[in-house]
Predict the structure.
Amino acid sequence: MTKWVELSMTNASVPRKHRSGWVLSAIVFAAEFVFGCYLYAVQGDLQEDALSRVANAFYVLFSRDPHLGAIGFVWNPLPSMFELPPVALWRWFPPIASDALAGVFVTSVASAAMAFALHRALLWAEVSKVTSFVVVLCLALHPFMFLYGANGMSEMIFACFLVICLLNYLSWKDDYAVSRLVIAGCALAMAFWARYEAVAFGVGLFAVVLSDALRRAPADAQVRLLMSRRAYRRFRSQERLWYAAATAIVLLLPAVYSGIVWMVLNAEIMHDPFYFLHSAYSNLSLTSMLSSASKYRSIEHHPVRVLLFMWQRIWIFVIPVGMVLVYRLTRGRLVRWETLQLLVLAASIPSLQFFLLLHGASYGWLRFFFYPLPIAVAWWTYEMRLDAIQLGRWWRGLAQVAMALSIVISGGFTGRIMERNATVAPEEYSLIHMDKMR
């Protein structure tokens, strides 16, 4: 996964500092894996969803009829597929499956890969190694990010590919190299294989990339000299449309292909291309009884109540987004198309939750609302790259401190809610207070 972040070789500081990314990744991986082993193997605080994903990988290798289809269609298959290599060691180290340590290993790797990608992108933006370390470590040690980087769930895997996708899109904005768009599309497809929220993010990214392509389609000066003004305007309009269509195809083709393959597999094995949507274990089936719960019944079909419900959970994760907006204001870039693009990307997945909550099809757990946090940090690398020359070293360092502080403030509020508020963070509260509940 760390190979998926392309860097401009014009920045000579990146190769020299390249090893620092591996050091940072090793630190993050070790911290996550040790904490995950403590949670699962020592405390026994296993997440049922994480254990189920490890079980699916186990069935592929050690069931009475070993085959890849044993992963099933309850969960997106990528987490379980990543867990196949560690689960293969089960005969020599049983806790890798019985204590779901395979899941802990995979999410720890995903957390480390995301840290590597962000650190490398910050180095490309001429941010110093020390301040880059600080920003990335603040994100990795954010209570929510740290917990989900160690608990074997799919959120961190999804967030890792989401960040890789966004970093490559932001790199594409600099030079419009097709290779970066291809990597962004492949990362989006991998995110889809991890969680279905990739569809919502893909829609937002499609809108953002389309706006860039329509506004900045390359022009040929020689063609302008050979045409009248009216003919050239007509030609440029057509050229923009063709360029936008080609850009969208490059970006979305891997994800669309993945969706088609997933439906074909559902049809071939379960005889229903939409089995993953309405099977007995699908999200719609599992949330069909939500209307009987007063908390969800009171907000169903009430948009304002849904927004208030979401705000109670999402505000702690949008603090870094606010920091990016404040920075753009100080640099005179707030009223720009790119500000709207940032907001569209940050709101893409929460918009899906709004729709699901409005129709009583989501539990509204805290982990469904954290995505603006990694999106904001990934976008921050782009802001630093824009000001790599204009902003002095001291001011760049101050900007990193401000971003790190916003992440720390977000982490402080998040940790407090996870520890004390069982209504807003029921899963995290139960995990923290597991000993008292036994």
The chain has three domains: 15-153, 163-272, 289-438. The chain has 23 helices and no strands. The two ends are 39 Å apart (CA to CA).
